[in-house]
Amino acid sequence: MALVQDPPGPASPRPDPAPAWLDPAAAGTGVGPRPVTDAPNPRDASTVPFGRSAPVLTCVGLRKAFGERVAVDGVGFAIGRGETYGLLGPNGAGKTTTISMVCGTLRRDAGAVEIDGQAMDVGATALKGEIGFVPQDLAIYPDLTARENLDFFGRLYGLAGRVLHDRIDEVLDVVDLADRARERTARYSGGMKRRLNIAIGLLHRPSLLVLDEPTVGVDPQSRNAILSSVETLSAGGMGILYTTHYMEEAERLCDRVGIMDAGRIIAEGTRRELVAVVGGLDHVSLIASGDLEDAADKARELPGVEGATVGDGRIDLLVHEARKLLPRLLDRIADDGVTIRSVEVIEPDLETVFLHLTGKALRD
Fold first, then answer.
1. 45, 14 in Cβ contact below 8 A?
2. Contact 316, 361 (CB under 8 A)
3. Which of 8, 113, 133, 323 is the most exposed place for a label (fewest CB within 10 A)?
4. Distance between CA atoms of 216 and 219, rounded to whole angstroms?
């Protein structure tokens, strides 16, 4: 498992070619899109040092307290060009506070942030133009069309004329809204509105795109469209900081993941590196009713059970050789008067790692 300070490595393949304007070389950085590798699972590719290109984002020792409560305590990580970095953690872990310091909208108590090698702070107005921030809350005007919204925000970025017109066309293509561009956004679905939100964050061609739970509350079709857009952007060389409460999104998109809990990054690495943390442990999820806390206590006493948590009408367990242990486990729980409605056995994945390290499900 990589240390927090370790730099990210070369990126893995993406399914679709990126628009020419997404190549950082076109923006004057001189760095081309990520190389294609033969890794069978893109998310499993091992990391190596940055090599010729410097990271687009570097954070070191970030700290922020609100009164006596320390929200972020010594957080550090780096993101390379063409890399998607997932920041995962339960509610209250400090993700939003970290993002706010990265984007220069919240003054930090300690630590440093660099964007393209330049120091970021709340007063670094020009440098903030290198960041595209897409918040959870929608920032669009419902009485305007998609094109009118983009025109308005583009002018705030200082764009105008043919340059603005062309960039609006480009970002509409990236988020697959070109055919609905002249429709009032009040008539858009929730997923379409979120895709437009992403388009707004792309207008000024940022070096770093920050996506804070961009798929919350959207339908499966829109979610897939958003994820495909993120893959395209990363393939074009854009650095992406991605937070989500959906572990399957992290599995699909992220080259590396930082797991955050109680204000600290407690583990970081590629999917393969993180899954190695739990070794051969399986994740057993039981949907049940009854005294689940007592049942979990009894389950922990069984040899082979490494951990058990209760939440949302289910018991989640980390166990050795689940298939062999399951009959004894179900008998033990049934003896306590618990009714089992369904049983799911999952081989080690990021969800298993998260549960093992934090003792919580990602949505807690």
1. no
2. yes
3. 323
4. 9
Distance CA 43, CA 272 (A): 8
The token duo for 187 is 């008539």
Write out pLDDT tens, residues 238-262: 999 999 888 889 989 999 999 999 9
Tokens representing 362 are: 């990602």
CA distance 132 to 275: 31
Q: With a cut of 50, which residues of the chain have pLDDT below it? A: 1-52, 364
Element (H, E) at 195: helix 190-202
Which residues is 256 bridged to in the sheet? 85
Give the DSSP letter string of 47-94: P---TTS--SEEEEEEEEEETTEEEEEEEEEEE-TT-EEEEE--TTSS
Residues in the chain: 364
**pTM of structure:** 0.70
pLDDT value of residue 337:
77
Going by C-alpha positions, the residue among 9, 134, 127 that lies closest to residue 78 is: 9
Please, what are the domains in the chain?
20-274 (3.40.50.300), 280-347 (3.30.70.100)
The answer to whether residues 260 and 227 touch, using CB atoms and an 8 Å cutoff, is no
DSSP 276: G
Task: Please give the pLDDT value at position 49.
Answer: 37
Question: Residue 203 in contact with residue 139, Cβ under 8 Å?
Answer: no
Q: How far is CA 158 from CA 59, 84, 163, in A?
A: 28, 28, 10
State residue 13's pLDDT score: 43
- Report how far residue 242's alpha carbon sits from residue 226's, in angstroms, rounded to the nearest whole number: 12
